[in-house]
């Protein structure tokens, strides 16, 4: 292999690694954006909404149990 072949190979490897790094960075930003609350469409907002609903449901069930116990 000549010096030109080595240079071409190294440029190809660097280009591939750069593409992989850019893809990984994009995916990390995408997943992190899902964990930040926005106006209700993120995963975190949906989970928070479910937790609030379940706590309300638990409070209602406790109230019903208290009323039935009397």
List the helices and strands and how they pair.
Elements: H1 3-35, H2 43-69
Describe the structure.
- This protein has 70 residues and is mainly alpha-helical.
- Helix content is 86%, strand content 0%.
- The chain has 2 domains: 1-35; 39-70.
* Helical content class: over 70%
Summarize the biggest pleated sheet.
Answer: none
Q: How many domains, as an integer?
A: 2
Total helices: the number is 2
What is the rounded Rg? 27 Å
Give the DSSP E fraction (strand runs of 2 or more residues).
under 5%
Please provide the ordered H/E string of secondary-structure elements: HH
The count of DSSP E runs of length 2 or more, i.e. the number of strands, is 0
Query: How would you classify the helix and strand content by structural class?
Result: mainly alpha
Contiguous low-pLDDT stretches (5 residues minimum) are none
Shape: rod-shaped
**Mean of pLDDT:** 84
CA-CA gap between termini: 91 Å
What multimeric state do the chains show?
single chain
Short summary:
The chain is an all-alpha fold and 70 residues long. Helices cover 86% and strands 0% of the residues.
Keywords:
single chain, mainly alpha, 70 residues, 2 helices, 0% strand
